[in-house]
Sequence to fold (123 residues):
Amino acid sequence: DVQLVESGGGVVQSGGSLRLSCAASGFTFGDYAMGWLRQAPGKKLEWVSSINSRGDTTNYAYAVKGRFTISRDFATNAVFLQMNNLKQEDTAAYYCARARGRAATVSVDEFTYWGQGTQVTVS
Fold:
């Protein structure tokens, strides 16, 4: 079974940094693009960032571009999201997600699995 387990969330002041991690298992990691989604209270699930199956192409939502960096480690089947200069509007539950295919998709609808999420609160 596909499993995605996030960690690294927490409470941070505006301007601070956090690094989210995702441990992936149950599928051939190098065959799929991966990404991060987020959902703030009362809002829809939102795409944040994606990385393609080879790890050489990344995409970012406009709201986080220049502040967040996505990466993946094929040796450990892990995905990371480095978040710098955090703002209050970044407060949300963040979900690691596996895409339907290999491309670094920008659509929430193209992600077919996601984890339980990790909470990020920016005060």
